[in-house]
UniProtKB/TrEMBL annotation:
It comes from the Archaea. Residues 141-291 form the N-acetyltransferase domain. GO terms for molecular function: acyltransferase activity, transferring groups other than amino-acyl groups. Residues 172-181 have a biased composition (Acidic residues). Pfam families: Acetyltransf_1 (PF00583). Residues 48-68, 169-194 are annotated as: Disordered. Keywords: Transferase. This is GCN5-related N-acetyltransferase.
Amino acid sequence: MAAVGAGVDMIPDPTGSFTTDLQRRVYEYVERNGAVTRDELARSITVDDGRATSKPARSGTYTESVPPTPDELRTCLEALQAEGHLTETDGKLRVALAATTTDLDCEDGRVTIRPARGRDRAGIIETMRTVAADGPYVVADHVATDLERDRALVRANEDRARVVFTAILEPASDDEDESEADSGGNADASTDGDVVGWLHVDAPERRALRHTAEVTVGVDPDHRREGIGTELLEYGLEWAIGAGYEKCYQHVPATNDGAIAFLEENGWEREGTHERQYCLDGEYVDEVMLAIWP
Protein backbone atom coordinates (compact mmCIF):
# COMPACT_ATOMS: atom_id res chain seq x y z
CA MET A 1 0.00 0.00 0.00
CA ALA A 2 1.25 3.51 -0.79
CA ALA A 3 2.56 5.66 2.04
CA VAL A 4 -0.10 7.98 3.40
CA GLY A 5 1.47 10.33 5.94
CA ALA A 6 4.68 12.11 5.08
CA GLY A 7 6.62 13.67 7.92
CA VAL A 8 3.84 15.75 9.44
CA ASP A 9 3.48 16.57 13.13
CA MET A 10 -0.09 15.78 14.19
CA ILE A 11 -2.58 17.85 12.18
CA PRO A 12 -0.74 21.14 12.59
CA ASP A 13 -2.52 24.21 13.94
CA PRO A 14 -0.69 26.96 12.02
CA THR A 15 -2.56 29.92 13.46
CA GLY A 16 0.49 31.08 15.41
CA SER A 17 2.83 31.01 12.43
CA PHE A 18 1.19 33.48 10.06
CA THR A 19 3.15 36.59 9.14
CA THR A 20 0.13 38.82 8.49
CA ASP A 21 -3.33 39.27 9.95
CA LEU A 22 -4.78 38.67 6.47
CA GLN A 23 -3.17 35.21 6.32
CA ARG A 24 -4.67 34.33 9.69
CA ARG A 25 -8.14 35.54 8.71
CA VAL A 26 -8.12 33.76 5.36
CA TYR A 27 -6.95 30.46 6.87
CA GLU A 28 -9.50 30.62 9.69
CA TYR A 29 -12.32 31.36 7.21
CA VAL A 30 -11.37 28.39 5.01
CA GLU A 31 -10.88 26.11 8.03
CA ARG A 32 -14.28 27.10 9.39
CA ASN A 33 -16.20 26.74 6.10
CA GLY A 34 -14.53 23.69 4.58
CA ALA A 35 -14.16 24.71 0.92
CA VAL A 36 -14.46 28.23 -0.49
CA THR A 37 -13.81 30.01 -3.77
CA ARG A 38 -11.54 33.00 -4.20
CA ASP A 39 -14.59 35.14 -5.00
CA GLU A 40 -16.21 34.13 -1.71
CA LEU A 41 -13.05 35.08 0.16
CA ALA A 42 -12.92 38.44 -1.61
CA ARG A 43 -16.50 39.13 -0.49
CA SER A 44 -16.13 37.85 3.07
CA ILE A 45 -12.68 38.84 4.37
CA THR A 46 -11.90 42.29 5.72
CA VAL A 47 -8.82 43.78 7.36
CA ASP A 48 -8.12 46.98 9.26
CA ASP A 49 -6.85 49.64 6.88
CA GLY A 50 -4.65 51.12 9.62
CA ARG A 51 -6.03 54.62 9.39
CA ALA A 52 -7.59 56.17 12.48
CA THR A 53 -11.12 57.49 11.94
CA SER A 54 -12.87 59.91 14.26
CA LYS A 55 -15.92 58.75 16.13
CA PRO A 56 -18.56 60.79 17.95
CA ALA A 57 -17.57 62.69 21.07
CA ARG A 58 -16.28 60.58 23.99
CA SER A 59 -15.91 57.59 21.63
CA GLY A 60 -12.30 58.19 20.57
CA THR A 61 -11.10 56.76 17.24
CA TYR A 62 -11.28 53.42 15.42
CA THR A 63 -9.77 51.81 12.35
CA GLU A 64 -12.03 50.98 9.43
CA SER A 65 -12.27 47.40 8.12
CA VAL A 66 -11.95 47.10 4.35
CA PRO A 67 -11.67 44.18 1.89
CA PRO A 68 -8.12 43.29 0.81
CA THR A 69 -7.09 44.40 -2.64
CA PRO A 70 -6.94 41.69 -5.35
CA ASP A 71 -3.13 41.83 -5.23
CA GLU A 72 -3.10 41.48 -1.43
CA LEU A 73 -5.46 38.49 -1.53
CA ARG A 74 -3.51 36.81 -4.34
CA THR A 75 -0.19 37.27 -2.52
CA CYS A 76 -1.75 35.96 0.71
CA LEU A 77 -3.10 32.83 -0.98
CA GLU A 78 0.20 32.17 -2.74
CA ALA A 79 1.99 32.32 0.62
CA LEU A 80 -0.54 30.05 2.37
CA GLN A 81 -0.28 27.46 -0.40
CA ALA A 82 3.52 27.69 -0.57
CA GLU A 83 3.72 27.04 3.18
CA GLY A 84 1.43 24.03 2.85
CA HIS A 85 -1.48 25.48 4.83
CA LEU A 86 -4.04 25.55 2.01
CA THR A 87 -4.59 23.68 -1.23
CA GLU A 88 -6.77 24.55 -4.22
CA THR A 89 -8.66 21.99 -6.30
CA ASP A 90 -11.71 22.33 -8.53
CA GLY A 91 -11.61 26.09 -8.01
CA LYS A 92 -12.00 25.80 -4.22
CA LEU A 93 -9.55 26.36 -1.38
CA ARG A 94 -9.30 23.82 1.45
CA VAL A 95 -7.09 23.12 4.44
CA ALA A 96 -4.16 21.10 3.07
CA LEU A 97 -3.85 17.44 4.02
CA ALA A 98 -0.82 15.33 3.11
CA ALA A 99 -2.23 12.04 1.86
CA THR A 100 -2.19 9.90 -1.26
CA THR A 101 -4.88 7.62 -2.66
CA THR A 102 -4.95 3.83 -2.75
CA ASP A 103 -7.03 1.51 -4.95
CA LEU A 104 -8.64 -1.85 -4.27
CA ASP A 105 -10.22 -4.10 -6.91
CA CYS A 106 -13.52 -5.54 -5.68
CA GLU A 107 -16.27 -7.69 -7.13
CA ASP A 108 -18.37 -4.68 -8.21
CA GLY A 109 -15.56 -2.45 -9.43
CA ARG A 110 -12.60 -0.47 -8.21
CA VAL A 111 -12.63 1.22 -4.81
CA THR A 112 -10.49 4.31 -4.30
CA ILE A 113 -9.60 5.34 -0.75
CA ARG A 114 -8.64 8.98 -0.33
CA PRO A 115 -9.24 12.11 1.77
CA ALA A 116 -12.90 13.12 1.60
CA ARG A 117 -14.01 16.10 -0.47
CA GLY A 118 -16.99 18.36 -0.13
CA ARG A 119 -18.88 16.50 -2.85
CA ASP A 120 -18.60 13.31 -0.75
CA ARG A 121 -20.38 14.74 2.28
CA ALA A 122 -23.92 13.54 1.56
CA GLY A 123 -22.73 10.04 0.66
CA ILE A 124 -20.55 9.80 3.77
CA ILE A 125 -23.39 10.85 6.06
CA GLU A 126 -25.80 8.43 4.37
CA THR A 127 -23.30 5.57 4.71
CA MET A 128 -22.72 6.41 8.38
CA ARG A 129 -26.46 6.33 9.03
CA THR A 130 -26.80 3.01 7.19
CA VAL A 131 -23.97 1.42 9.15
CA ALA A 132 -25.26 2.78 12.47
CA ALA A 133 -28.73 1.38 11.74
CA ASP A 134 -27.39 -2.03 10.65
CA GLY A 135 -25.57 -2.64 13.95
CA PRO A 136 -25.58 -0.24 16.90
CA TYR A 137 -22.70 2.20 16.33
CA VAL A 138 -23.56 5.20 18.47
CA VAL A 139 -20.37 7.17 17.84
CA ALA A 140 -20.78 6.88 14.06
CA ASP A 141 -24.31 8.23 14.36
CA HIS A 142 -23.00 11.19 16.37
CA VAL A 143 -20.27 11.85 13.78
CA ALA A 144 -22.92 11.90 11.04
CA THR A 145 -24.90 14.49 12.99
CA ASP A 146 -21.74 16.55 13.49
CA LEU A 147 -20.98 16.51 9.76
CA GLU A 148 -24.52 17.63 8.97
CA ARG A 149 -23.89 20.73 11.09
CA ASP A 150 -20.27 21.40 10.15
CA ARG A 151 -19.19 22.15 6.57
CA ALA A 152 -15.51 21.32 7.16
CA LEU A 153 -14.34 17.74 6.59
CA VAL A 154 -10.86 18.73 7.79
CA ARG A 155 -10.36 20.66 11.01
CA ALA A 156 -7.03 22.04 12.22
CA ASN A 157 -7.24 24.67 14.94
CA GLU A 158 -6.30 25.18 18.56
CA ASP A 159 -9.36 23.29 19.79
CA ARG A 160 -9.70 20.32 17.47
CA ALA A 161 -8.16 18.23 14.72
CA ARG A 162 -10.35 16.13 12.44
CA VAL A 163 -9.91 14.27 9.14
CA VAL A 164 -12.35 12.20 7.10
CA PHE A 165 -11.25 9.57 4.58
CA THR A 166 -13.65 7.86 2.22
CA ALA A 167 -13.93 4.76 0.04
CA ILE A 168 -15.41 5.49 -3.40
CA LEU A 169 -16.70 2.69 -5.64
CA GLU A 170 -16.36 3.19 -9.36
CA PRO A 171 -18.44 0.39 -10.92
CA ALA A 172 -16.75 -1.90 -13.40
CA SER A 173 -17.61 -1.19 -17.04
CA ASP A 174 -16.98 -2.87 -20.36
CA ASP A 175 -15.79 0.51 -21.59
CA GLU A 176 -13.35 0.98 -18.69
CA ASP A 177 -10.24 0.77 -20.85
CA GLU A 178 -11.68 3.23 -23.35
CA SER A 179 -12.67 5.62 -20.56
CA GLU A 180 -9.19 5.51 -19.05
CA ALA A 181 -7.71 6.29 -22.44
CA ASP A 182 -10.08 9.23 -22.86
CA SER A 183 -9.04 10.61 -19.47
CA GLY A 184 -5.37 10.44 -20.35
CA GLY A 185 -4.73 7.55 -17.96
CA ASN A 186 -5.45 9.76 -14.94
CA ALA A 187 -6.65 7.38 -12.20
CA ASP A 188 -8.30 10.32 -10.39
CA ALA A 189 -10.23 11.56 -13.41
CA SER A 190 -13.44 9.84 -12.26
CA THR A 191 -14.28 10.84 -8.69
CA ASP A 192 -18.07 10.75 -8.63
CA GLY A 193 -18.66 7.11 -7.73
CA ASP A 194 -20.62 5.88 -4.74
CA VAL A 195 -19.42 6.26 -1.16
CA VAL A 196 -19.23 2.75 0.30
CA GLY A 197 -17.14 3.41 3.41
CA TRP A 198 -15.44 6.00 5.57
CA LEU A 199 -12.86 6.46 8.30
CA HIS A 200 -13.01 9.44 10.65
CA VAL A 201 -10.11 10.59 12.84
CA ASP A 202 -10.98 13.02 15.65
CA ALA A 203 -8.49 14.44 18.13
CA PRO A 204 -9.09 17.18 20.71
CA GLU A 205 -6.12 19.50 20.96
CA ARG A 206 -5.52 18.96 24.68
CA ARG A 207 -1.83 18.65 25.54
CA ALA A 208 -2.23 15.58 27.73
CA LEU A 209 -4.14 13.76 24.96
CA ARG A 210 -2.27 14.93 21.86
CA HIS A 211 -0.86 11.46 21.28
CA THR A 212 -4.35 9.94 20.98
CA ALA A 213 -7.11 10.02 18.37
CA GLU A 214 -10.61 8.57 18.21
CA VAL A 215 -11.31 6.54 15.08
CA THR A 216 -14.63 5.51 13.58
CA VAL A 217 -14.75 3.32 10.50
CA GLY A 218 -17.53 1.65 8.59
CA VAL A 219 -18.50 0.01 5.30
CA ASP A 220 -21.92 -0.18 3.66
CA PRO A 221 -23.42 -3.60 4.47
CA ASP A 222 -23.82 -4.36 0.74
CA HIS A 223 -20.06 -4.07 0.20
CA ARG A 224 -18.61 -5.90 3.19
CA ARG A 225 -16.25 -8.89 3.14
CA GLU A 226 -14.38 -7.48 0.15
CA GLY A 227 -11.44 -6.05 2.09
CA ILE A 228 -12.67 -2.45 2.04
CA GLY A 229 -12.90 -2.08 5.83
CA THR A 230 -9.44 -3.54 6.40
CA GLU A 231 -7.95 -1.32 3.70
CA LEU A 232 -9.64 1.76 5.17
CA LEU A 233 -8.38 0.89 8.64
CA GLU A 234 -4.81 0.33 7.41
CA TYR A 235 -4.95 3.56 5.41
CA GLY A 236 -6.19 5.59 8.36
CA LEU A 237 -3.74 4.10 10.85
CA GLU A 238 -0.83 4.66 8.48
CA TRP A 239 -1.88 8.28 8.14
CA ALA A 240 -2.22 8.58 11.93
CA ILE A 241 1.31 7.24 12.42
CA GLY A 242 2.67 9.77 9.94
CA ALA A 243 0.70 12.53 11.67
CA GLY A 244 2.28 11.70 15.04
CA TYR A 245 -0.59 9.92 16.81
CA GLU A 246 0.57 7.04 18.97
CA LYS A 247 -2.73 5.57 20.14
CA CYS A 248 -6.07 5.21 18.35
CA TYR A 249 -9.23 4.14 20.12
CA GLN A 250 -12.89 3.32 19.51
CA HIS A 251 -15.91 2.83 21.77
CA VAL A 252 -18.52 0.35 20.53
CA PRO A 253 -21.75 -1.01 22.05
CA ALA A 254 -21.20 -4.53 23.35
CA THR A 255 -24.07 -5.77 21.19
CA ASN A 256 -22.20 -4.85 17.99
CA ASP A 257 -20.45 -8.20 17.73
CA GLY A 258 -19.45 -7.65 14.11
CA ALA A 259 -17.59 -4.39 14.76
CA ILE A 260 -15.80 -5.79 17.80
CA ALA A 261 -14.74 -8.95 15.94
CA PHE A 262 -13.53 -6.88 12.97
CA LEU A 263 -11.36 -4.64 15.14
CA GLU A 264 -9.91 -7.54 17.14
CA GLU A 265 -9.09 -9.37 13.90
CA ASN A 266 -7.12 -6.28 12.88
CA GLY A 267 -5.04 -6.11 16.05
CA TRP A 268 -7.18 -3.91 18.31
CA GLU A 269 -7.39 -4.86 21.97
CA ARG A 270 -10.11 -4.45 24.57
CA GLU A 271 -9.17 -1.96 27.28
CA GLY A 272 -12.28 -2.17 29.40
CA THR A 273 -16.03 -1.81 29.60
CA HIS A 274 -18.38 0.98 30.59
CA GLU A 275 -21.31 -0.87 32.09
CA ARG A 276 -24.83 0.17 31.05
CA GLN A 277 -23.37 3.09 29.08
CA TYR A 278 -26.11 3.20 26.42
CA CYS A 279 -29.86 2.87 26.46
CA LEU A 280 -30.81 1.39 23.09
CA ASP A 281 -34.41 0.52 22.34
CA GLY A 282 -35.20 0.66 26.03
CA GLU A 283 -32.38 -1.71 27.03
CA TYR A 284 -29.16 -0.80 28.83
CA VAL A 285 -26.07 -1.84 26.87
CA ASP A 286 -22.42 -1.92 27.89
CA GLU A 287 -19.77 -0.02 25.93
CA VAL A 288 -16.59 -1.84 24.92
CA MET A 289 -13.43 0.28 24.77
CA LEU A 290 -10.90 -0.86 22.17
CA ALA A 291 -7.54 0.62 21.20
CA ILE A 292 -4.41 0.04 19.18
CA TRP A 293 -0.90 1.46 19.39
CA PRO A 294 0.05 1.47 15.70
